[in-house]
Design goal:
single chain; 6 strands; about 10% strand; globular
């Protein structure tokens, strides 16, 4: 029978270069797999875990279980045909893909978007942020066994999707921001219905704060868990709430204002403890900020006027040769598109810069070491990643 030292700090033993000595043949270690399972933000990927007891010694991420190869698919299609593809890169918030792709095409083609369209795009992006955060907060709570939170927030998210359906006819994929502007302005009576939705979401967030963030079990499970050293932010390219939870004020809306964000009144949420609880609280406060931003925007969206610039026949559209990068701030951080054109009717190169590649692979593999296996899902959720964005 194998005997082990009681002092866990001695495990695993180290090589001279500091790496762990892991010998599966010794009987001291076990390889297990977490995932893939489809539901959830982190379920479409798999973690190959080497554990000793209930502690993780090594973590390797595996992707490729969902949509793949988006960039190459788009490079073999005409510009307008890329939109049904790009929205699937981040299913819970497809509008950021629409905006970034459209904006790169507009810049390369020299198209000026009407003012009313810029207000509509800003509204759509904040609505996308709100519904994505509502889905996330239910997932984070569920990772710690608090299923009721997800039932509340998914109901609230459906209310926001009702408003999307009013505008675009679609609940998940909207494709309302083609190159040149938007497909329409707000429908009649939208302002009142949006105000009612925001009031209901605000009330739900009061209940979420009371039941989740003031819950001793949630605090015990999340406080101190999944610490991100602020020095890692630049090293790993960490952005969004994961950086802001570490006290680093990274937000593209403030750092590189786009659309109408420079005309809106808001402050980004920050934390200092850089753990799972802090990142959740930063996102909770982001939800409240987004609700306020939507209220501001709805009041300022023009009721009529031009909302679409004149563009060539999209089926025969050839974009002049050039390259550009457009960024935005999605719920997880900087989201950008690098687009290269060669004068043909097809993009020469499209590269998507999503936060998930950094957060879900490099960061997760480092943070998992010495993590208890029962906390794996909680840490993964706290990073807020979308595996299709990694497989792009």
């Amino acid at each position: 029978m194998l005997k082990f030292e009681n002092d866990r700090s001695k495990y695993p033993e180290k090589n001279a270069d500091g790496t762990n000595i892991i010998d599966l043949e010794s009987g001291k270690f076990l390889k297990i797999w977490q995932g893939p399972i489809h539901p959830g933000m982190t379920g479409n990927m798999s973690l190959e875990l080497i554990i000793q007891g209930d502690e993780i010694m090594e973590c390797k991420t595996h992707v490729g279980y969902l949509h793949r190869g988006f960039e190459k698919l788009m490079e073999r299609r005409r510009f307008i045909q890329c939109f049904p593809i790009c929205v699937r890169i981040a299913v819970p918030e497809p509008d950021f893909n629409e905006y970034c792709l459209a904006a790169t095409i507009e810049e390369l083609a020299g198209i000026e978007v009407p003012d009313a369209a810029e207000w509509m795009r800003t509204l759509l992006l904040e609505m996308a942020r709100l519904q994505s955060y509502l889905a996330w907060i239910g997932g984070q709570a569920g990772a710690f066994g608090m299923g009721i939170i997800g039932q509340w927030t998914i109901w609230a998210r459906d209310l926001v999707l009702d408003r999307f359906e009013e505008i675009s006819g679609g609940r998940i994929y909207h494709m309302h921001m083609p190159p040149g502007g938007v497909r329409s302005l707000l429908p009649y009576g939208f302002e009142g219905r949006m105000k009612d939705t925001l009031d209901k979401v605000s009330q739900i967030m009061v209940d979420v704060e009371r039941v989740m963030f003031n819950n001793s079990v949630f605090k015990k499970r999340s406080v101190g868990l999944g610490y991100i050293d602020p020095l890692w932010v630049e090293e790993y390219g960490i952005t969004g709430p994961n950086a802001r939870g570490a006290g680093i004020p990274k937000d593209v809306r403030k750092d590189y204002p786009y659309l109408k964000y420079g005309e809106l009144d808001f402050e980004v949420s920050l934390g200092t403890d850089s753990d799972a609880f802090t990142r959740a609280d930063v996102r909770r406060r982001d939800i409240l900020t987004t609700i306020d931003l939507i209220r501001q925007i709805v009041e300022r969206v023009p009721k009529n006027g031009e909302f679409m610039a004149e563009v060539p026949n999209v089926l025969h559209w050839k974009i002049p040769k050039g390259e550009t990068y457009i960024r935005s701030e999605c719920t997880r951080g900087e989201y950008g598109y690098y687009t290269v054109t060669d004068g043909s009717g097809y993009p020469r190169r499209i590269n998507v810069r999503g936060p998930s590649y950094t957060h879900a692979i490099a960061l997760m593999e480092r943070m998992a070491i010495n993590l208890n296996i029962s906390d794996t899902a909680g840490v993964m959720s706290s990073l807020h990643t979308y595996p299709p964005e990694v497989e792009r």
